[in-house]
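ok new one. same drill as before - structure tokens go in, u give me an amino acid for every spot. 260 of them this time. try not to just spam alanines like last time pls lmao
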């Protein structure tokens, strides 16, 4: 799937996946994907994004137009302190759930290692260390009243994991889960430029910064299936997602075709 970057609103009768902002680089709608039971993931209900601390001016007005009620912030508390939470945080049902427990510096990573295996191995740490926070994030989405956005700093790795797990629980097939993850590739150049602007005195050693090819998530999902039997097995047995939570997710986020 290679949908272009658009603006807030709709193109014809179908909402746009990519929402254009001046300062945010990786904000998009998780709706529209077909599910195994014949339904479709509801548009304009769950969004994924890079850090909302960058919202200013026209971007802030555009964000408010989306009617978002809940914010799931997957960053470390020190990232929230450094870069800011969503503006006017008190107006949202906001939770900070740091799913990553072992920080690392992508910019300083050895450029000679296999980049996609490296990123998958870092994700493997997150899915084990952050299982409790992942459960809370998914439960928060299931119980949200109104549209919700999930974000981290770049909206790539941590957000990509939660988005992949959410789509899997909703019955979206693996190929489209991988496609959704890889859409961050459209923002990679912007993410690199933002890093260079933020750290002009540092050198970027790793040529793969900001990248998110489908291969990375394919490694992650394969590793989970090898260890837990399936991704659903991981989510049930390690994360603790209950059947009741899955039922709430599907009731809220899947639109069934009209019977004529």
């Amino acid at each position: 799937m290679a949908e272009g970057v658009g603006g807030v609103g709709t193109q014809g009768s179908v909402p746009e996946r990519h929402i254009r902002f001046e300062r945010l680089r990786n904000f998009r709608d998780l709706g529209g994907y077909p599910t195994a039971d014949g339904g479709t993931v509801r548009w304009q209900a769950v969004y994924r994004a890079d850090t909302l601390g960058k919202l200013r001016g026209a971007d802030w007005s555009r964000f408010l137009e989306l009617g978002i009620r809940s914010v799931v912030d997957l960053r470390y508390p020190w990232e929230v302190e450094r870069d800011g939470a969503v503006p006017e945080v008190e107006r949202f049902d906001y939770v900070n759930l740091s799913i990553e427990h072992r920080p690392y510096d992508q910019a300083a990573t050895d450029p000679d290692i296999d980049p996609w295996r490296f990123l998958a191995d870092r994700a493997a740490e997150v899915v084990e260390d952050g299982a409790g926070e992942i459960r809370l994030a998914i439960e928060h989405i299931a119980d949200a009243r109104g549209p919700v956005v999930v974000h981290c700093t770049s909206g790539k790795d941590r957000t990509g994991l939660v988005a992949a797990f959410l789509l899997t629980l909703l019955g979206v097939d693996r190929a489209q889960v991988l496609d959704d993850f890889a859409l961050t590739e459209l923002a990679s150049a912007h993410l690199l430029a933002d890093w260079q602007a933020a750290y002009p005195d540092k050198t970027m050693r790793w040529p793969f910064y900001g990248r998110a090819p489908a291969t990375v998530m394919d490694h992650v999902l394969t590793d989970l299936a090898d260890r837990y039997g399936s991704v659903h097995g991981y989510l049930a047995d390690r994360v603790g997602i209950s059947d009741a939570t899955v039922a709430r997710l599907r009731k809220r986020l899947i639109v069934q075709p009209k019977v004529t």
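Confidence is low (pLDDT under 50) at residues 1-12. and btw The CA atoms of residues 125 and 151 lie 19 Å apart.
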